[in-house]
Amino acid sequence: MSTFPLPRKLKNIILSVFPRFGYRLVGLNDIKSDSHGFGRAIQVQSEIVALLNKQQSVIFDVGSNTGQAYQVYRSIFPDATIYCFEPFPQSWQELVLTASGDHKVTINQLALSSVEGFADFHVNANAQTNSLLPTDPSASTFWGSGLLETCSITKVKKITLDAFVEQAGLPAISILKLDVQGGEFEVLLGAQKLLQSHRIDLVFLEIILSMTYAGQHSLQDYFALLSSYGYHLVDFFDPYRNGFLLNQVDALFVSPAVYQKLAVPS
């Protein structure tokens, strides 16, 4: 990947905006030195996948936006098969360009949810906050203005993860990464067959805790759902706080079989 110097003003804007979405900017060469954020989360995932010693890794990047996470996953997993999902047309078009030339990636202009069909998709002031869920009236209290205000609503096609995996004929998923702006719980509800059979090794998802989207689920809901299928929490990553309040955090869960492999006597 080529690099180029950014103008100072543009660099300052980027550095100020990204943390508001819970992202920390990390150079691909510096991932191992990022001990708290997304880079550390990816490093942990790569080490766990290596322990599983599988011939082929399959990664689902759900909520790909323009390919930010996809590029990091590709750099760490050069031989993995990656499935990207991005329903918003403009972001999807940029994602296609980002992944052009990669013959081991499939770009899907789809939303994943608990049911199949078509749904309203809320296009917000910043595309990274687009969601199937409407913005909560209190969102600006926690995130400020100019991010989550809904500008328009469009229709998108949605499918369940269970249905997609069955249609694709995939035996299992190595890493399921979810960043769909409050809709992560619905994606998991649409993956109950996969979770029940433990055909997803790692679940890495963003959990929004502050009132951001109407209908979002609580941290307790995620724990209850995933633990009901035997999944265990490994760690939290990249917490984003607003004063004393934790606005959001990334969490990594693993299947029972993977958890047993990680267990090390003290």
Explain what you see:
The longest helix is centred in the first third of the chain and has 15 residues. The termini are far apart. The chain has one domain: 3-Layer(aba) Sandwich (Rossmann fold), CATH 3.40.50.150. Strands 3-2-1-7-8-10-9 form a 7-stranded mixed β-sheet. It is α/β, with parallel strands linked by helices. It is built from 10 helices and 10 strands. The radius of gyration is 18 Å and the shape is globular. The N terminus is likely disordered.
Feature tags:
Rossmann fold, 7-stranded mixed beta sheet, alpha/beta, 266 residues, 3-stranded mixed beta sheet, disordered N terminus, 10 helices, 32% helix
Give the topology, please.
Layout: H1 8-17, H2 38-52, E1 58-62, H3 68-76, E2 81-85, H4 89-98, E3 105-108, E4 111-112, E5 117-124, H5 139-143, E6 150-159, H6 161-168, E7 173-178, H7 184-189, H8 192-196, E8 200-208, H9 219-228, E9 232-242, E10 245-254, H10 256-262
Parallel strand pairs: 1-2, 1-7, 2-3, 4-6, 7-8
Antiparallel strand pairs: 5-6, 8-10, 9-10
